[in-house]
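Journal club side-thread
Mid-discussion, someone asked how the predicted structure for our own chain would compare to the paper's figures. Pasting it here so we can look after the session.
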Amino acid sequence: MVDILHRIGVTSSPDAVYAALTTVDGLAGWWTQDTEGDGETGGLLKFRFDVGGFDMKVLEARPAELVLWEVVEGPAEWVGTRVGFELKQEDGFTIVLFRHEGWREPVEFMYHCSTKWASFLLSLKQLLETGKGEPAPNDVKISNWH
């Protein structure tokens, strides 16, 4: 098993970051505008893009600390993987430790997804620091996979 890992600092409170990771409006502000569902523990979130989508079961949602999803619908490479956001404060930043874990092998699609996750984490940072992110369909396109 292999994982995608990223770390980003945001000059917003852990509570604000948590809200951006657990509310439909927050998620639609940085990942994809086509978002619906319930971001609390036990809920189901549905994310749609031009080229498909993902359904995530919310395994854990601990305010200002942790958000953990399991992919239950989407591309075969994603189903059964977990997406997590661990939050901590450090030197005036909320640090987001991101992981997309449980990939069976490092296929080319994983390389693509790693780059896309990085761009969407920067969109999260923009949303929280400026009030405007770059969610899909306004995200940076990096290939025919978007």
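Post-session note: The CA atoms of residues 50 and 81 lie 21 Å apart.
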